[in-house]
Amino acid sequence: MATVFQGLGATAAITAAANPLDSNKFLLSSRRSFSGKKTSLVVVRSDGSLNLNTGSSAGARRLDKLVTNAVATKADAAAAASASKPGHELLLYEALREGLEEEMDRDNRVCVMGEDVGHYGGSYKVTRGLADKFGDLRVLDTPIAENAFTGMGIGAAMTGLRPIVEGMNMGFLLLAFNQISNNCGMLHYTSGGQFTIPIVIRGPGGVGRQLGAEHSQRLESYFQSIPGIQMVACSTPYNAKGLMKAAIRSENPVILFEHVLLYNLKERIPDEEYICNLEEAEMVRPGEHITILTYSRMRYHVMQAAKTLVNKGYDPEVIDIRSLKPFDLHTIGNSVKKTHRVLIVEECMRTGGIGASLTAAINENFIDYLDAPIVCLSSQDVPTPYAGTLEEFTIVQPAQIVTAVEQLCQ
Amino acid sequence: MALSHLSSTRSNRFLRPLAAAAAAAAASSLCRPISTSTEPLVIETSIPFTPHKCEPPSRSVETNPQELLTFFRDMATMRRMEIAADSLYKAKLIRGFCHLYDGQEAVCVGMEASINKKDCIITAYRDHCTFLGRGGTLLEIFSELMGRQGGCSKGKGGSMHFYKKESGFYGGHGIVGAQVPLGCGLAFAQKYNKDENVTFALYGDGAANQGQLFEALNISALWDLPIILVCENNHYGMGTAEWRAAKSPSYYKRGDYVPGLKVDGMDVLAVKQACKFAKEHVLKNGPIILEMDTYRYHGHSMSDPGSTYRTRDEISGVRQERDPIERVRKLVLGHDLATEKELKDIEKEIRKEVDEAIAKAKESPMPEPSELFTNVYVKGFGTESFGADRKELRATLP
User: Fold this and answer.
1) B164 DSSP 8-state letter
2) Residue B185 and residue A151: Cβ atoms within 8 Å?
């Protein structure tokens, strides 16, 4: 992560320090990125303020700003997001591709491997066009052998390449679990620091449109206890591009969780280069009454429930935790200290999911600030059924969120 | 005594002209120094190579006296090191799993002789000798085995996790077969960076039945990766003999569309020739499989006596007939490159070196408690970690 901040020194410090509250939220960086050159770029924190400091003390200077609504429904909200320049509109999978392309341009060592990523263009079109631009050696079509090509990616990363391994569906990566757990996560430790594994493992997961049990898995709960890896979940085109770039630049192995249903989300994102902090949560909607923690697709269910709740007079604070490992306990803690009530809404299963770990973490650290027990709404502990109605019951629906908030806030 | 050796030498092509003079000198009780000559010597391997879909290399291996003596010294050091590790394990200074390589030394020594440090080697858990061959020191090895700070992985890896990045040694892996896809990744990186180097991915006859091996083989052959898959066939996969685990024991043929070569893994010169041939082949034609027919004297690990699934007669039979160090000793004595006494002196010297390394390693301290939390993530990422009781041993990483 140190590399992210290097460019800030000269250009950002002088201008930004003068006026952090400026409506020009993004420092213009006129130099575009080309391979081999380091651009000065800005780490834009999720609330729109500039990140000027390294390390966790940056949180001390947080500003309570409303970040634009992630689902770009209103034009003025979208405009407020990128006040300096109009930016450009695109879908989430295009944002991922943009991030990927920029990083591949910038660094020759970045390569993509996965099933159908090359000539086919990616089963979710994330890598469309990249094979034509970068060639077969940098965008590799692999045979259907997850264990082998994930292992290959890790071996290549040991020598200094920066591969991105795409699982066509996250569930398929279960076949590569041994490689991810033992070699990806642990090699930096067992080699005494000799090897770093700067690999990015990404793919779509989650409950989609009646894909059936095996294609609707949520692997974040299985991977969360592997030591040495970082996990992030993207939810908007803005953070998808930012997290993708940050993940590629990170020296640690990062698993980027995308969601099958979010690929066609449209949003206006800035033209300038930007990166999202990998370990930070995003404040979606500040509030006073209750903290709702969520990530990935459930963010939209929560925001839908929030509309109903606001009409009923509640003021929920919605945080998209984004960083699944490690948790951004700083943001979450500050929120708990303010609202004293927590509701976790997630798509993982009840048993052993991200929500379960988050509940434990918050209880351990912030028990003194809680006025009520933490409620965790998760998917049912069942294989996802095919029938549409049953599938709806498996995951958390906005109505359930509204009920839970009402109960908690009594 | 040297004269009698001269007359009974085997089929060596060159009789060194100085030999006669040297013999005379020896006879006059002047101590002749051990040979450091680099004049080429051509020796035939005892059995020919068995090819699969390729032309086998010639049986005549070019070497020189200095190299032969280096082989002897290196293999004797490895043998001594493994025996010492055996005693340390029984003395409970080495814990956990300890997989010993004695009997198989010819494979790693022969391989080293044909490659350079830019080529990569990756192997499984029987890695002590391979690490030594790649430039590791005895002190690093013993410190790591005993879990001390001075170890190559700072005491945090253990017997199965030796690595040396600067010499191209990529470990050191505990899960059977998982290192082969990693090896393909190393070869992929070599191809990506356009170095003219190769990767040797070693695995055993037990691992040869793993699916990921065939997946990796398919990908490597498809993309023409410069990888050499080396099956160290010691005929036993843990406690199961190869005939009980594999339908087809010809591991060199298992590649089917990938060429293969079966090599006598107890003959260091055969191994050297095969690896040299493989390196040249792979840089032009894509992957190749080498099967090294070798044997381990110890059990699978120190927790395995090694005698429940094979007879002691078999073990001692192999030791008498095929031991790699004895072969080199006979070659050296046969070509009059050193006397018996000199070889014994080398062995004594090695024993002393090993004992010194062990003594020094025992003095190395255990890792600091804060080392528990270092190297989990690469430095620069702030995190907090808790000890088992969640209250103490808290470390905030920079």
Assistant:
1) B
2) yes
Contact between chains at B375 and A155 (C-beta distance less than 8 A): no
Sequence letter at residue A178: N
B277-319 per-position pLDDT tens digit: 999 999 999 999 999 999 999 999 998 988 899 999 999 999 9
State whether A326 and B383 contact (CB < 8 Å): yes
Query: In this structure, what token pair is assigned to residue B106?
Result: 């010819």
Q: In sequence order, what are the residues at sequence separation of 6 or more whose Cβ sits closer than 8 angstroms to the Cβ of residue A310? A: A316
Nearest CA-CA distance, residue B276 and chain A, Å: 23
Q: Which residues of B touch A254 (CB under 8 A)?
A: none
C-alpha distance from A220 to closest chain B C-alpha (Å): 19
Question: Which of A154, A189, A226, A279 is the best residue to mutate to test the B interface, defined by the most B CB atoms within 10 Å of its own CB?
Answer: A189
Which residues make Cβ contacts (< 8 Å) with residue A71, sequence separation at least 6? A236, A265, A267, A300, A303
Q: What is the pLDDT of residues B154-210, one digit of tens each?
A: 999 999 999 999 999 998 999 999 999 999 999 999 999 999 999 999 999 999 999
pTM comes to 0.81
Token representation of residue B111: 């391989």
* The pLDDT of residue A9 is above 90: no
A215 is catalytic: yes
Cβ–Cβ gap A182/B173 under 8 Å: yes
User: Could you give the 3-state DSSP secondary structure of residue B21?
Assistant: helix
Question: Cβ A154–B185 below 8 Å, yes or no?
Answer: yes
CA A160 – CA A194 distance, rounded (Å): 11
Compute the distance between CA of residue A173 and CA of residue B176 in angstroms, rounded to an integer.
19
Contacts of residue A191 in chain B, CB cutoff 8 Å?
Answer: 153, 157, 161, 163, 165, 171-172
- Contact list in B for residue A330 (CB cut-off 8 A) is none
How close A5 comes to chain B (CA, Å)? 11
SS3 string, chain A, reads CHHHHHCHHHHHHHHHHHCCCCCCCCCCCCCCCCCCCCCCCEEECCCCCECCCCCHHHHHHCCCCCCCCCCCCCHHHHHHHCCCCCCEEEEHHHHHHHHHHHHHHHCCCEEEEECCCCCCCCCCCCCCCHHHHHCCCCEEECCCCHHHHHHHHHHHHHHCCEEEEECCCHHHHHHHHHHHHHHHHHHHHHCCCCCCCCCEEEEEECCCCCCCCCCCCCCHHHHCCCCCCEEEECCCHHHHHHHHHHHHHCCCCEEEEEEHHHCCCEEEECCCCEECCCCCCEEEECCCCEEEEECCCHHHHHHHHHHHHHHCCCCEEEEECCEEECCCHHHHHHHHHHHCCEEEEEEEECCCCHHHHHHHHHHHHHHHHCCCCCEEEEECCCCCCCCHHHHHHHCCCHHHHHHHHHHHCC
**Chain B residue with minimum CA distance to A186:** B376
Contact of B334 with B340, CB cutoff 8 Å? no
Please determine, for residue A51, whether its predicted confidence score (pLDDT) is greater than 90.
Answer: no
Q: Please tell me which of the candidates A152, A190, A279 has its beta carbon nearest to residue B184.
A: A152
Whole-number Å distance between alpha carbons of A151 and B189: 13
A102 catalytic residue (yes or no)? no
Tokens of B262: 């079966």
Tokens of B63: 């070497």
